[in-house]
Design a protein that fits this description.
It contains 5 helices and 22 strands. It is mainly beta and 420 residues long. A hairpin with a 2-residue loop joins β18 and β19. The longest helix has 11 residues. The protein is globular.
Length: 420
């Protein structure tokens, strides 16, 4: 694992906050070398897409007495871990559902619920199946029914894009659940702020990829108050008090919070500034440095223009992102697929390709209880000099070297003592 930075390359970094009239000062080659040198995995797969999920669509033909159907990740009669990957009311005895699952998962289940709210049974099916005819299928219901829970993914971030960090991916940790109510054109997103390993101001929002501001009739909080309620400082990251914000290119953005530390601690220093300790990332708490706090959650009800839009929302479209200050400018850190979508701030100024180094400052983990590294511990390392791997997840190191291998690495920690 490399420890010392090239000072000549570091010099190139101070130019990253440049204005468009200074693009000629940015040394792209030096920047890419700097990122490669500081990244904890030697010999990264240059075709890496950082993808651990896949998405598909299925059309269900249902009997007249079936009210709604669900795509489930497991068998609700034999497992207690089934999650609802998609749900839709049957109109004219039919529903079309879009869903996302881990890239390694091929076995799924379709559940049918009748007009009285009772599960009538399930039908196993294979990922990618386009049509399921429940009028001809045999519903299975052998075992003890355990109600499924909303599907939940974990999102992890580094706070210092475009500069490399320690890649412990715990500077901000969010868990996002997708749920459904009785109205076909509404979707519920429950956002849980779990950890803040960064020490500077971090804001967050959710970019709904592929959806325009006009596609959303409204966003409401249904179970609590805004995470940043009572924020005592001027807003510099998300300059709006509204929950639904129009992005730079008319994208639909949900505003989560202006300041993660305030959202979790609601605490100020004696000088009136926001208390900025690391939260839920250190093995032991140190005064003024780290602390623990209960995760905080908010559920957002998103009302779409029509039920087709609501049913098409998958975790492929859900792009939680953070905003952070670097070199005098506010930058956005998105999930890798949306890495260059500067939806609120004009970050790249038409020069996004300059930052196309195949490194992601965010991870999307299709697991609700994923354990992240303790403070300062990289997710996984590999040295070409020694051939050695280290970190809590050896599989992560191999996955970075070959994006088609070790796709379930997040389920198999090799050194759990290095996890929070």
């Amino acid at each position: 694992m490399k420890k010392i930075k090239y000072m000549t390359l570091l010099g190139a970094m101070v130019l990253l906050g440049m204005t468009s009239c200074h693009k000629e000062k940015f040394d792209q080659e030096a920047y890419n070398k700097f990122v490669d040198y500081e990244f904890m995995i030697d010999h990264m797969d240059r075709t890496h897409d950082w993808k651990l999920i896949k998405s598909s669509e299925v059309t269900i033909l249902a009997p007249a007495d079936i009210d709604y159907v669900q795509v489930l990740t497991d068998n609700i009669y034999t497992s207690t871990k089934a999650e609802i990957a998609a749900q839709g009311i049957c109109y004219d005895n039919m529903a079309t559902l879009s869903y996302s699952v881990p890239i390694t998962q091929n076995q799924l289940y379709l559940a049918a619920v009748d007009m009285n709210g009772y599960y009538r049974g399930i039908v196993p099916f294979t990922y990618g199946t386009k049509t399921i005819d429940l009028t001809k299928a045999t519903l299975e219901s052998n075992g003890t029914l355990t109600l499924p829970t909303p599907q939940t993914f974990t999102y992890l971030y580094e706070e210092n894009f475009p500069e490399p960090g320690d890649f412990d991916y715990n500077d901000l940790v969010l868990r996002v659940s997708k749920g459904y109510g009785d109205v076909s054109y509404q979707v519920y997103l429950t956002v849980t702020l779990t950890a803040v390993g960064g020490t500077k101001q971090l804001a967050a929002g959710i970019h709904l990829g592929g959806f325009k501001y006009e596609d959303i009739l409204g966003v409401e909080i249904v179970n609590s108050e805004k995470l940043d309620m009572g924020y005592p400082m001027p807003r510099i990251m998300i300059n709006s008090e509204e929950l639904l914000v129009k992005g730079r290119n008319d994208e639909a953005i949900i505003s989560l919070f202006e300041d993660a530390h305030w959202a979790m601690l609601r605490s100020k220093e004696t000088d009136g500034s926001i208390a900025r300790m690391r939260i839920n990332t250190a093995r032991s708490n140190t005064e003024f440095y780290s602390t623990t706090a209960d995760p905080v959650s908010v559920t957002y009800c998103i009302t779409f223009n029509n039920r087709e839009m609501a049913r098409s929302l998958t975790f492929e479209n859900i792009d939680p992102f953070i905003l952070e200050e670097y070199n005098g400018s506010v930058w956005e850190v998105h999930t890798y697929y949306y890495k260059f979508n500067d939806v609120l701030k004009d970050i790249f100024r038409g020069n996004a390709s300059a930052y196309d180094n195949h490194v992601s400052w965010s991870l999307v983990i299709p697991q609700k209880d994923f354990r992240y590294p303790v403070e300062g511990m990289s997710m996984g390392t590999y040295s070409s000099e020694t051939g050695g791997v280290y970190g809590p997840y050896d599989g992560f190191s191999y996955w970075i070297q070959s994006h088609t291998s070790n796709l379930d690495w997040y389920q198999n920690p090799t050194r759990p003592q290095l996890l929070y």
